[in-house]
């Protein structure tokens, strides 16, 4: 498989799986397991992550604009937006602290296909249990800082490859009683500082001399396009489809990965 075709494939995978509760790390294993493809390098990872970041920022540009306006004024013109910004900050703190604490372990890359498949199955079952016991008695405007902290703690499990950042955040949000749509929206907004932090971490670790700009550009635009429409349609239909299809898919995915070992 050519690098250009691989960059399209990986860009699609990253764009689709970054925001769905199905684990991007598990899906990114398939090109290598099936086709024996090469690693396009850390610079390509940065490009596709940047693509998904731009997509989520563009989709929520109005919410972000109002939050920034709320910070620029001292009066209570935007009380909900100011509170939402604070909630996102609180929910981001746990993964920042834990990420720095376990950074040395993460750099050792101790996880493999088996552990990714296993964590994919475990966190799919956790999502199922929480979803089946859901109450959905809170809206985003009702979210407290304590509840945001709980969601942030759940998001820390995303540091385990195969857990799914979106999946863990949505699991925490459903657990504290948020509606499915608001759980997804908060998880997507929470991805902005999280992905930004991951980009800083990746950039600080880059040591490549030669950069393949063509694959980076292809990966960036592909991941951005697919991420945008993933966010759009997931938020539009999450109330109707629920979490069961994603749980079933992840269980099958985990079993398939184990079978390919």
From TrEMBL:
* One GO cellular component term noted in the UniProt record for this chain: plasma membrane
GO MF term list: undecaprenyl-diphosphatase activity
> InterPro entries, from UniProt?
UppP
The reply to whether Transmembrane helix figures as a keyword in the UniProt entry is: yes
Topology versus the membrane: Multi-pass membrane protein
Membrane-crossing residues? 41-60, 84-102, 114-132, 144-164, 184-203, 215-235, 241-260
The EC number on file is 3.6.1.27
Subcellular location, record wording: Cell membrane
The biological processes this protein is annotated with in GO are: cell wall organization; peptidoglycan biosynthetic process; regulation of cell shape; response to antibiotic
Does Phosphoprotein show up as a keyword for this record? no
Summarize the protein's role. Catalyzes the dephosphorylation of undecaprenyl diphosphate (UPP). Confers resistance to bacitracin.
**Further remark, if any?**
Bacitracin is thought to be involved in the inhibition of peptidoglycan synthesis by sequestering undecaprenyl diphosphate, thereby reducing the pool of lipid carrier available.
Q: Know the name of this protein? A: Undecaprenyl-diphosphatase
- Tell me which species this is from: SAR86 cluster bacterium SAR86A
What is the gene name? Answer: uppP
């Amino acid at each position: 498989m050519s690098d250009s075709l691989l960059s399209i494939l990986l860009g699609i995978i990253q764009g689709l799986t970054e925001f769905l509760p199905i684990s991007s790390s598990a899906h990114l294993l398939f090109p290598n397991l099936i086709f024996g493809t090469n690693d396009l390098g850390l610079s390509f990872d940065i490009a596709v992550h940047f693509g998904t970041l731009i997509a989520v920022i563009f989709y929520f540009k109005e919410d972000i604009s109002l939050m920034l306006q709320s910070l620029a004024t001292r009066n209570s013109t935007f009380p909900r937006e100011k509170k939402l910004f604070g909630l996102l900050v609180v929910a981001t703190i746990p993964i920042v602290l834990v990420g720095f604490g376990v950074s040395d372990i993460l750099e050792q890359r101790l996880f493999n296909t088996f552990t990714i498949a296993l964590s994919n199955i475990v966190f799919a079952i956790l999502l199922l249990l929480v979803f089946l016991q859901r109450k959905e008695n809170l809206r985003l405007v009702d979210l407290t800082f304590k509840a945001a902290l709980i969601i942030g703690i759940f998001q820390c499990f995303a540091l385990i490859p195969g857990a799914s950042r979106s999946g863990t955040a949505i699991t925490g949000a459903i657990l504290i009683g948020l509606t499915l749509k608001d759980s997804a929206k908060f998880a997507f907004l929470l991805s902005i500082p999280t992905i930004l932090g991951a980009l800083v971490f990746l950039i600080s670790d880059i040591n490549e001399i030669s950069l393949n700009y063509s694959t980076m550009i292809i990966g960036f635009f592909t991941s951005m396009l697919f991420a945008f429409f993933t966010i759009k349609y997931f938020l539009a239909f999450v109330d109707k489809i629920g979490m069961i299809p994603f749980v079933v898919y992840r269980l099958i995915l985990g079993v398939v990965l184990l079978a390919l070992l």
